[in-house]
Design a protein that fits this description.
By secondary structure, the chain is α/β, with parallel strands linked by helices. The strands form 3 sheets. An 8-stranded mixed β-sheet has the order 6-3-2-1-7-10-12-13. A hairpin with a 4-residue loop joins strand 2 and strand 3.
Length: 199
């Protein structure tokens, strides 16, 4: 199949897409979020990249209208995988990694995110799969996050496959893209897995 030419797509500005997503979030029920999150978990855990990953890097969901990652983390743990969680360093304004050991060992940081207390380092070399959150993502792999570019800086440290977890209402044809933005390899939604490298 032929590749998409990025220049042929009209990108939606990040500021505009964030407003659009906020509107769509207000229209979806919490029960739908839970149901769709479980479907995303089921789809993801059947993917080869997940099945064969020994070391998984994944965020812990915080917001009520984002993909809930608890089931994914518990599945990975149950399969004997090592799970690593981003830990924000307020001094360097950068993410580090910390190993997930149990929900009881997590603490809330000053921004309200759950983080492990121990096992902190900067080594991403042995990570086999990275799962990242998004406000929106395009079928071309362009990701809109919360802002700040923290995940992009982290993703530059690894060659592991990069997956975005998203609901269908967060997926667009093309989004505003800057040179420092790191493209996502695949998108997992409640309906499908999108390979952004082919169309």
């Amino acid at each position: 199949m032929k590749k998409i030419n990025l220049k042929l797509k009209t990108p939606i500005p990040k500021s505009e897409v964030r407003k659009l997503i906020e509107k769509r979030q207000r229209e979806i029920r919490r029960s739908e979020i839970i149901d769709k999150s479980l479907k995303i978990c089921d789809r993801l855990t059947q993917a080869d990249d997940f099945v064969y990953a020994n070391n998984l890097f994944i965020y812990i969901s915080k917001y009520p209208f984002e993909v809930d990652t608890k089931k994914i983390i518990e599945t990975a743990e149950g399969w004997g995988k090592s799970v690593f969680i981003p830990k924000f360093n307020p001094h360097t304004k950068a993410f580090r990694r910390a190993q997930f050991t149990s929900w009881e060992d997590l603490v809330l940081n000053e921004d309200g995110f759950l983080e492990p207390k121990i096992g902190i380092d900067d080594d991403m070399v042995d990570i086999d799969l990275v799962l990242v959150p998004c406000v929106a993502v395009s079928i071309l792999g362009q990701r809109v996050g919360a802002g700040g570019g923290f995940y992009d800086a982290l993703l530059r440290k690894t060659h592991a496959p990069k997956y975005a977890l998203a609901f269908e209402f967060q997926v667009f044809t093309a989004l505003e893209y800057e040179m420092h933005d790191i493209r996502i390899d695949r998108i997992v939604t409640e309906r499908r897995i999108i390979d952004t490298r082919i169309t």
